[in-house]
Amino acid sequence: MQPILKASLFALLTIMVGLNAYAQKDEVVIAQAPGAFSLHGVVYHKLLRDAVPPATSYVTDWEDIFTESQEAQLDSLISNFESKTTIQIAVVTIDSCMTTSDAFDSTTLKIANTWGVGQKEKNNGMVICISKGLHIMRIQNGLGISPQLSDTDTQQIVDSVFLPYFEKGQFFEGTQAGLQAIIDKLKPAQ
Length: 190
What we know:
With 190 residues, the chain is α/β, with parallel strands linked by helices. The protein contains 5 helices and 6 strands.
């Protein structure tokens, strides 16, 4: 093959590969979350419908709405509660590029099932998912939680505790107060 033809084919192939990478830009995130990868300085993230990255603590802040100190406070609150009751709670913030409003409920259920929140034999886990960008939140209760905290009770806590803070942009305060309300409701009688 002639050198000019080889160079033209190589350039065409390079452009095609570059266009393919560019076409994936709908999955770009600002901060690199677990499971993300970087290509030519652009960070990409698989959507949560593709795979759920492993949990690293009780609080997984993919949307970066909490400071490290705030995450540690929430983590400590949940850890102390679990040590007293065996009930496991996970708080997850989900960036709007990781799912859609329509898929949010199924995404939270997928996270709960993938991570196995709660003890399997007791089904006593709870996953609280919050998306500031999508203006939505969802709490997934394990079946073992229902006798103490019904869906109606959960919705009341969301409406009366979480959301008033969230509407003011106070996501840490709302999450902390909402967690405390849930903990108070689930605490064994003494």
